[in-house]
């Protein structure tokens, strides 16, 4: 599960993916387990939920390079694009509204486009979190 965002700009609406991952880590009782993994240039925490092993990932790169971290982690943890969930902001959704999308285009989202390019696939499941337009 990768929370897309701009690592240096945490707390902004465009880093909503990272905020969701922080919340998920708290709910899974692994909030204190984040560690820097230099191999994929990301903060990583391992968790278990409903019998599934999860790799929680917050790239330490700018949004348009998040895919490099996601692709590196996929290789390290032997994951295919179909195993990856991207959590990211969506300007076209009202603030707080969410939607799940399987595959498809990036719809202009630079972080998603970076993941599609780095993984050579658009098969990732996406949790789109509405941030609305200013």
Automatic annotation (TrEMBL):
Record keyword Hydrolase present: yes
Alphabetical list of NCBIfam families matching this protein: pth
Organism (species): Scytalopus superciliaris
Pfam families according to UniProt: Pept_tRNA_hydro (PF01195)
Source domain of life: Eukaryota
Gene3D superfamilies hit by this protein: Peptidyl-tRNA hydrolase (3.40.50.1470)
Keywords of this entry: Hydrolase, RNA-binding, tRNA-binding
Single annotated GO MF: peptidyl-tRNA hydrolase activity
Keyword field contains Coiled coil: no
Protein name, as recorded: PTH hydrolase
